[in-house]
Amino acid sequence: MKVLVLSCSTGEGHNSAGNAVSEYFALKNVHCDMINAFSFVSDMTAKVLSHGHVFVYRNMPRLFGAGYRLEEKYPPKSFYKKMAKGAPALYDFIRRGGYDTVVCSHIFAAMMLTECKRQFAADVFAYLLVTDYTCSPGVNMLDMDAYFIPHEQLASEFTGNGIDAARIVPSGIPVSQRFFSKKPKELSRRELNISENADAVLLSSGSMGCGPVKELARCLLESLSFNAQLCVICGSNRRLFTELEPLTRDKRLRLTGFTPKMFDYMNSADVYITKAGGLSTTEAVTVGVPLVFMDAVPGCESYNISFMTENGCAVTADSVEGIAALSCDILKDKQKARESFAAGREAVVKNGAENVYNYIVGRYGR
After folding, report:
1. Residue 312: closest CA among 347, 277, 266, 283
2. Are 319 and 186 part of one and the same domain?
């Protein structure tokens, strides 16, 4: 078996899911490579789809949400056509590399692979990793051997969009195995130089740094106790980092850019405030940190909020002040807060990477 993971550079979530699968296959000594599907299309197409997505997502979230709702009504055929142009190059890459299994962690990559199968009858097992708690627009345009979805509760959404029930696998969203670690919170705090006695609040808004982070940081500093430590992860948003720097006069605030230490930040936190990205949400629930959502970007993340709050894994509010108040309530009785989220965690958390591996290897051996 030789596995290829196809991702797309439209934020780190899809890359993280792909890396989690690659990591697990490597643990089992199965050859697995990962590549950006945009490398098979023109530079212009890649820039339009990648940088355009990031720009609108970060700077015009309401427009992003409106576009998502439009795609829900009308299949995104223009995206399919753009990605289909990369099918010949992808087919040549698969053939020369000797890959027999391809896992797509983004719908754009799955569109390209679907066209590769249609044009060239590519003889590979084709799979899609669904990385949000909903059936995204365009899934019914794909031809995959299996669709790895986050939870069995969502199966009817996929069958309602024309996906064969026999191809739906409720695997869970793959996250790195380190998020299943039982590392003591005290050790994570020491490594991050966070006081063991502090009320540790983590504020993040994904790799792109979206949402009302500045307003929330100010509101939290007004609301938190003198014993608090507020860590704000700005991701790749350098402008956000610069705009928040004046607030670091308050020694309770610490700023961090893009970091590979998200597990330790989550593990050290008493409460985690974040936008509802599918991957970051799944990582947080896996770790077990009490989770408070801000509705930063309408669209698929609105469905993530609904799924997680309805299953008791998170809470949310409509305003910055409400989010800060919920966070302070959690800090008043940390043990009770963790216990209140525990039942939801048990119902939702799955080892997605392990389940994907077991399904693919089981099918491959038939």
Report:
1. 347
2. yes
